[in-house]
Amino acid sequence: MKRSVERQQTVTTFVTQFEQAKKIAEISNSSALIRYYPTSRKIVVAQAGTTKLLVRIPDQMQVFGLTSALNIGNDGYVAPTTITFTDGSWSRKITIQMMWGELIVA
Question: Bigger pLDDT: 30 or 98?
Answer without folding.
Answer: 30
